[in-house]
Design brief:
heterodimer, A: alpha+beta, 5-stranded antiparallel beta sheet, 3-stranded antiparallel beta sheet, 32 helices, 10 strands, B: 144 residues, alpha+beta, two-stranded antiparallel ribbon, 5 helices
């Protein structure tokens, strides 16, 4: 059933009506299919509608690359409405990376040369949006011609297209440079605006152009003055300021021209002073112009008085109630603080006020500016403010604030004690956000300040007693207590209140740190070291108690886990390769059930393994030794089994297989495998090696563990493969004469 | 230089998007969602300039629609802020009290207006009469 294709408006309605993403996708896919079909064989007159729909869909984020060729067809059509949609599509869908874009060049050329302004405008617009370097080169002469054409509508577009071309192909600037001077005489604001942009672009690109245009500074100044003073031409005025956009552009160009150039700067000075004082800043447009003026003043070689004026204007901005203005003021002040430090200092109180802003962008700017304003004279007050800020600031600013405070403290600290206090306060408020080297810095600082040892250790102890969660603080405190614990216990210190601290309290605190799960391994390391140091510095009778505490949870816990993990890994690895080969062995053992069943689970239950493994190193072979059994001999190779029944576990049997070689030749690639009946659980551990050297060399041993919970009679089958005397040998045999004690 | 011009509503649906520098299509969607998220999370009293990656975003809210312009470092933020308002005033004059629905259903016309005002990332025309002149001629042509 063919659903008729929709008009753009209906399509939009339907998409709006779709309640879920999936529904919307469905509508769009259906429509895309239609569009594709109509592109192939649909009515050419309706093509622009289809493409319009496709562009809408593209804006929503769906792929639309199949529309590219259609754009080309539509551009080539003579009707304006087709061209309009075609060019729009070209701008949206095509770009340099597609191969199709070069095909437009010819169409654009044709359109540029015919006289219809609207069409030329379209072509220029598209060219400036997606013209590649080759296209620009081809069409440069056309655009230049249009720059001098009769219609301002076309001219203004041509100028900005020239900007784009220069960006793409810098060599073309030679073509456009001479035209600029003529264009500056324009009265039409649109063209003028474009020209200024063009000149700006040219100057930014090449120093030669910069020099050329420095000569026109007086002319620019004149233009500006006429702009400002010829009354309020309502044509371009926005809230009382005549064409603020043009003003801003001219100011920007003046900035670039005046940078590092005395002569131009001088000619601009008057103008800038005039603008700075006369612009009406009650509305945003005026403020925009003023802002640009200030930026210009700061960048060129302006008179000192002018600079002070600029900074004052910024200071006034800071007091403005409009957030936007405050934001730009803070940004510009930040730029200025390097060059005009003293001028900016005057506004320090206002800046500090801005720290309390709820707005994140503003407070960030204020923070940066405050940090830049810290110097020797105001450091105490500033740091006080900043620390207040640190307590309430949003999380993403904390790290910056903390490191900023620490840096400033380092550079400007009036006294060591103040420095230590400051760092301590930062660590308590925002310990988690501090950089890693802060701990090292602080410890070094404290270590260097001998007279403050007692003081610092006391304060750190207090801080630690209150809160053990901030890791850097805990680390430093632990270190300090370890180093200067004796000073802490002495009891008296003139700089803080007398504090009676008992040894047990100190040790209890350190123990709390060790056992807290908030402590990082590094922190625990610090605490342990501290305890060790204290054991030598404190009085002797506590030594025994401290030494008892030494083998603490830290080492024991992870080690137990590691051992268990290692053995668990070893166990499955050694048994898995055996599993498949044992299958045939087991068939022979269990005569009754012939079907291939899973070999008995060779991974015993984890808990069982753990207990047994942990027993392994410590439990020596005990009880009545079971006699060894020789099970195999061939050409000098002898296999012996020795049995152990550990006392604690009645169901377990440990068999050690020992292979000895009395012959003349080595036995290599020796592999021994074993199989037991289903009710048993067998585990083979890795052998000591796979070579049994000749003439009574080192025997090879392998351990077998057999679990026999049912106390069933043990049957054991062994399979040996090895190379001996150049021959590979394979032997399978059942072990007979197993002593009764092995399974009863 | 203006990098992109977006009109997004509060639910995050893009009503208009124009990019003056090529951005991959899947990155566009990501960009738009992130941008609208950062704009929505601002309260009324906060300032209208946000720093996002290496752009600066300047946004203004009109009823349920956010107009967001992304610029690079060299632009004057307050001028762009003014420009957004200028754009809305032009739309207002053309559509006689423009609403979101007007924009949605006349997207091609809005594109034409935008193209008249901004060319390749630079502001070219801000005079209302001059911007709307070609559009009015076009309308007259299509009626007749």
């Amino acid at each position: 059933m063919v659903v008729p294709s929709l008009k753009l408006q209906d399509l939009i309605e339907e998409i709006r009506g779709a309640k879920t993403q999936a529904q919307e996708r469905e509508v769009i896919q259906r429509e895309c299919a239609h569009i594709r079909a109509s592109f192939r064989d649909g009515d050419p007159l309706q093509r622009h509608r289809q493409l319009a729909k496709l562009l809408y869909v593209h804006m929503l984020g769906y792929p639309a690359h199949f529309g590219q060729m259609e754009c080309l067809k539509l551009i080539a059509s003579p009707r304006f409405i087709d061209k309009r949609v075609g060019y729009l599509g070209a701008m949206l869908l095509l770009d340099e990376r597609q191969d199709a874009h070069l095909l437009i060049t010819n169409s654009i050329k044709n359109d540029l040369s015919q006289g219809i302004q609207a069409v030329q405008g379209l072509a220029l617009c598209t060219l400036s949006a997606m013209g590649s370097a080759e296209m620009c080169r081809d069409l440069a002469t056309e655009v230049e011609r249009l720059l001098l054409g009769p219609s301002p509508y076309v001219r203004k577009k041509a100028v900005l297209t020239a900007v784009h071309m220069i960006r793409k192909v810098p060599e073309l600037s030679d073509i456009f440079l001479p035209v600029c001077a003529k264009l500056l005489h324009e009265r039409h604001h649109g063209v003028l605006l474009g020209t200024i942009t063009l000149i700006t672009e040219l100057c930014e690109r090449s120093p030669a152009a910069l020099e050329h245009f420095q000569k026109v500074v007086p002319q620019l100044v004149r233009i500006f003055r006429t702009l400002v003073t010829t009354g309020h031409t309502t044509e371009h005025s926005i809230s009382g300021v005549s064409d603020p956009f043009l003003q801003v552009q001219i100011l920007r160009l003046l900035r670039i021209l005046g940078r590092n150039h005395e002569e131009s700067s001088e000619s601009m000075n008057d103008l800038l002073a005039q603008v700075a004082t006369n612009t009406d800043t009650s509305r945003n447009s005026g403020s925009a112009v003023l802002f640009e003026t200030v930026l210009t003043i700061m960048d060129i070689r302006s008179a000192a008085g002018l600079r002070v004026l600029a900074v004052n204007i910024l200071g006034r901005f800071l007091l403005n109630s409009d957030k936007n203005i405050r934001y730009v003021a803070l940004t510009s002040l930040l730029r200025l603080v390097q060059s005009d430090h003293s001028a900016v200092q005057r506004h320090r109180p206002t800046v500090v006020e801005c720290l309390r802003e709820p707005d994140a962008s503003l407070s960030r700017r204020a923070l940066e500016l405050s940090l830049a304003l810290v110097n020797n004279s105001n450091v105490r007050a500033m740091i006080q403010e900043l620390q207040g800020f640190l307590e309430f600031c949003p999380l993403d600013l904390r790290a910056d604030c903390a490191s900023g405070i620490l840096l400033a403290a380092e550079r400007f600290a009036p006294t060591k004690r103040w420095h230590i206090d400051t760092i301590l306060r930062v660590l308590t408020t925002a310990g988690a956000h501090v950089r890693d080297d802060a701990v090292a810095n602080l410890t070094q600082l404290i270590g260097g300040a001998q007279e403050l040892h007692a003081y610092s250790v006391r304060r750190l102890y207090n801080a630690l007693a209150q809160d053990i969660s901030q890791q850097p603080l805990v680390q430093v405190a632990a270190w300090c207590i370890g180093e200067y614990g004796d000073l802490l216990l002495e009891g008296s210190c003139e700089e803080t209140e007398p504090l009676q601290v008992e040894e047990e309290e100190v040790l209890a605190l350190l123990e709390r740190v060790l056992q807290s799960h908030m402590s990082l391994p590094a922190t625990r390391g610090y605490a342990l070291t501290a305890l060790m140091k204290l054991s030598t510095r404190l009085r002797g009778d506590n030594k025994a108690a401290i030494l008892e505490k030494m083998p603490l949870v830290e080492r024991g816990g992870p080690q137990v886990d590691e051992e268990a993990k290692e053995s668990k890994e070893a166990a499955p690895v050694s048994t898995d390769p055996q599993a498949s080969k044992l299958l045939d062995l087991l068939d022979l053992l269990d005569g009754t059930s012939g079907d291939a069943q899973q070999p008995p689970p060779l991974d015993p239950s984890p808990e069982g393994t753990l207990i047994h493994l942990l027993d392994l190193p410590c439990a020596p072979p005990a009880l009545a030794p079971i006699p060894n059994l020789k099970v195999f001999e061939r050409e000098g190779l002898q296999l012996n089994l020795s049995f152990v029944r550990p006392p604690g576990t009645p169901a377990l049997l440990l068999i050690t297989v020992t292979a000895t070689n009395a012959s003349e030749g080595d036995v290599t690639h020796f592999v021994c495998q074993a199989a037991v009946p289903k009710s048993f659980q067998l585990q083979l551990q890795a052998p000591s090696g796979d070579t049994v050297p000749a003439q009574g060399g080192l025997p090879m041993t392998q351990l077998l563990r057999i679990l026999n919970p049912n106390k069933a009679p043990l049957r054991l089958k062994l399979r040996l493969t090895y190379n001996h005397f150049g021959q590979s040998v394979q032997e399978i045999f059942e072990v007979n004469n197993l002593p009764v004690e092995t399974w009863q | 230089m203006i990098k992109f011009f977006l009109m997004v509503n509060k639910q995050g649906q893009t009503r208009l998007s124009k990019y003056y520098e090529h951005v991959e299509i899947n990155k566009r969607i990501l960009l738009e969602t992130e941008v609208i998220k950062s704009c929505l999370s601002r309260a009324n009293e906060q300032c209208s300039f946000i720093e996002y990656k290496d752009f600066k975003l300047i946004y203004r809210q009109y009823a349920a629609l956010f107009i967001v312009v992304g610029v690079n470092d060299t632009e004057n933020e307050m001028a762009i802020y003014e420009f957004i308002h200028n754009f809305v005033e032009v739309l207002d004059e053309y559509f006689s009290r423009v609403s979101e629905l007007d924009i949605m259903f006349n997207l091609d016309k809005v594109y034409i207006i935008l193209d008249e005002m901004v060319l390749n990332g630079c502001i070219v025309e801000t005079n209302r009469a001059r911007i709307l002149a070609p559009l009015l001629i076009l309308d007259k042509m299509s009626e007749s």
